[in-house]
Structure formats: C-alpha cells, structure tokens
Amino acid sequence: METRFPIEELVSKVLSELERLNYAYNTICGYRAFYKRVIAFAKEKNEGYFSEALGRDFLQEKYNCTVDYYKEAMPKGLKGPIRRIRVLGDYQLHGVIIRRIVKKPGYVKPPQFETELTAYEKECENNEYSKRGLRTRMQRLFFFIDYLDRRKVQKSNDITPEIISDYVKTIYKYHEKSIASILTTLRVYLRFLYFNQYTDEDLSLKVPQQSKYYYPPVPSVWNKEDVIRILESIDRGNPTGKRDYAILLLVAKLGLRAGDIKSLELSDLNWHSKTIEVRQNKTKNTVTYPILKDIGWALIDYLKNARPISNSPFVFIRMNAPYEAFGKDANLHNIIMKYIRLSGITVSHDKKQGLHSLRHTLASTLLEQGTPLPVISEVLGHFNSKSTSVYLHTGMEGLRKCAIDPEEVLKNV
Questions:
Q1: 367 with 380: CB under 8 angstroms?
Q2: Of the listed 86, 137, 150, 356, which one is catalytic?
C-alpha cells in the first residue's frame, strides 16, 4: 500500500504519529532534528521524495554506514540513525510505525481485538502450552495486532489477504528461523479466528509459504577440557559456588534445561532410588534421571552447607534475602558467564555461551560414545513420554554404576 508523499509531508506525518503513540518528548525532538538533516540532504540531491536508496546514501555520507542493515547486524553507534531511516521507509510503505522492540509484560490489547485475543490465550493454556512458549507466541502475535491497529482495522473480520501480505513484507529481512516462527504463529491464530467464527474466511490459507527451507545451525559445543576448566574455576568453599557447581553439573551431565532446574523441588530428589524425577516445563513429560556420584555429592554439599534456611520447596534458591526461588524470567545465563570469565576461556562472538551450550555438549559427547539417538533425544527432552522407557532400559543401567550409594551418604552425614 505504498503511498509516496513529498519528503517534508512524510516527515510531518511520522512526527505526528510518534506523538500519537506517546513517544517521549525528548525522543520526538531527536527524530525532528535528525529528519531536518535528511530533508536538507534530499534537497542537495534534488530528491523530492524519500526512498530506501536516499536513506542508505544519507547514512553512508553522514555516518560512514556501509552495512546492509536489513541483512547484517547494526553497528552499536548507528542503531539510532538506522532506526530513524527505517521508520521513514516503514511509514511510506505501510502507513504505520512498526515497533521493533521486544514486548514487555503488561501489553494492553487493542479493544477491538481484546475478546478474541483473550479467547485464543485461554485456548493455548487449555492445550497446556508451556508458559515460556505461550509468552513467546503471544509476543509475536502482538506485533501483528499492533500492525492491524495502526492500519485502522476495526475488527478481525476486516483483515484482508492484502493486509496480511503487507505485514509479511515487514519481516522479510529477519532470520529464516524467525520468519518461519512468525508465519506459523499467524497461521495458527488466523485458523483459530475462522474456526471460532470471528472471520468469515479462513485467512490462514492466505499466509505465504516460506520459499526456503530452514537448516538449523550446528549447535555450539564445548570441548572436554574447557568444561573441566569452567567447573574447576568455581569456588566450592563459597555457598554460592556450591550452588552454582551443582547447577552446572546437572546441565553438563544430565542435560537439564534452565527452566527445569529452577522448578526442581526437594521432593523430586529420591535418594532411596538414586533418581531425580523432573516434569519438564517445555514438553510436560516426566523424565527420571539417575543421581550420578559427583552430582549427588554436589547436591548434598549444597543442601547441607550452603542452602539458606528457607520454607521454599525448590532445591535452588537465591543466596540473598529474600531466600526464594529464581524469578520466572531468570535464564541462569549469568551463572555460566561468570565462570567462563573466571576460567580465562576466550570465546568468539559467534559462539553461544548459555547453559544450552552445555546441553549440546552432552548430546555431542553421547553421540561420539555411540549412544543411540532415542536415548539422546530422551535425555534432552525432545521426544514424548513413550521414549522414556527406551532411556530407562538402555541408558539407566550404565549410569547407575556411577550412582551414589545411600549407605555411603548416611555414613558421611
């Protein structure tokens, strides 16, 4: 729906829209000053209208910016100027200012879509989507809803294939995996609208197919020596170190996700059978892991000598008051980063460094040792509960050989 306005008129419309969206006064002043320079540049080039080419030339001449900001990462010092140029292009193309920041909790649903959004969210909860998965799904959907609102769409039945097509144009510069996720979210939501009679037409059929198949990148893994260095860098004489050591062992040796570690309760530790029973947050499957010897002693050391006195049912809690469970959005990323720095390991920028990288390392190690794929999938929680029996029968016995002896535990209590 591109409508070309003279550049002065386009800037005026953008500034008015920023005011309507309640952007901060200082932010709008910054945009206004920046656009004065863009208008002056356009006049120097004898251009009466804004274009992407004009925007790129402006950034290159005034900021020495030569990156293709639709495909490459934006340099730190140039994010502001690039964002302002993209706002002009977005408004000229779509008639709206597209927010490109991550939604924060407390999103206010536009009133014309509130009923169906609430109903959709409720259906997702009834389908037992994980909290994290539902939050991510809704955040993707809110961008689309914001776009509809700014296009002055007054009800779901007013959505047209053309509007869907225009919105998809705004995401084409994203990574293939992100595009696939957004398109899937749109299809599912539009199908929900049709099946629940919010729309007369099944608009999910109008969401374009991705022309390129996504090949997932090779996961980041650590070599054995680096994992040992990370673990050895932990001060296990310190209460926080005792906790962090137990957490990193659970990830590195059992492949637990951060969410499962946060939700692990004291009652999940079965010392009699030497097992840990985990109901995975992501899959909702219940998986049983063995308490390996080093993991067992690390847990005992933490529980006896480091864990603050607390009524919390969770195994791992904060080490500073209030002594409660980790926050729902905590990903424990800071824990592994702390010990990567202390160990002196140099990590390249393109290598993922979170707890998930230890899960990938475990999978890679098991694969090298000839572990069957169904067992690896079960350890990482990628298959349904039917695969649990495969893991218990083929992998458990070998791991039990390293399991802690309850009698030995009692002798040392």
A1: no
A2: 356
